[in-house]
Amino acid sequence: MKSILLLASLILCFLSSVTNGDVLFSSLPRSLSVSASPTEGQVLKAGENDIVLAFGLNQTVANQTNGLYKKMEVKLCYAPISQVDRKWRKTVDNLKKDKTCQFTIYDKPYETNVEGFRWKIEKDIPTATYFVRAYAYGSNGEEIAYGQTTNDKKTDNLFRIQGISGRHASLDIASVCFSVFALVSLFGFFMIEKRQSKS
């Protein structure tokens, strides 16, 4: 009896998510192939380096929905190691609430295969470990398929981007010079004050 109630509640939850127009990541087929130029563990710099991408239909998966694909989006996504204790990067199965993939690399009408697309890493990309994921959208504007450069557990083919800290060597040198000047000035004033008190 409990199992029947549990099954009924699961069906109701699924139906409510469908009627609300929410798409669950777990319901999407992995029918897209995605590859990116960074190698495992490579460190790239925001505002300097490029990522070269290739993506399209996964030929190893029998797919009858190719004609339904209307738009393709490719996104830069946080790896689990960079999501720990960061709720604003949290992975949620409901794609409307999911925060895994926050940076859009490519957003164009669907093409069967795209190779050699070059994306310069934007300056506002924060320091973190990433992977790349693609979504195919249907005519209703909702995700209907995906592909990614990592495995299902998101542990392979991860790369790191080093964000811009806002600090430069010239600023560090200037701050050190001003600190030394402040200490020398303080010491000098102390010595002058000491001489004047003796006289």
Automatic annotation (TrEMBL):
PANTHER family: HIGH-AFFINITY NITRATE TRANSPORTER, HIGH-AFFINITY NITRATE TRANSPORTER 3.2. GO terms for biological process: nitrate assimilation; response to nitrate. The keyword NADP does not apply. It comes from Chrysanthemum sp. CSG-2014. Keywords: Cell membrane, Membrane, Nitrate assimilation, Signal, Transmembrane, Transmembrane helix. Involved in nitrate transport. Residues 1-21 form the signal peptide. This is High-affinity nitrate transporter. The gene is NAR2. One of its GO terms (cellular component) is plasma membrane. Belongs to the NAR2 family. The chain crosses the membrane at residues 173-192. GO terms for molecular function: nitrate transmembrane transporter activity. The lineage of its organism: Eukaryota, Viridiplantae, Streptophyta, Embryophyta, Tracheophyta.
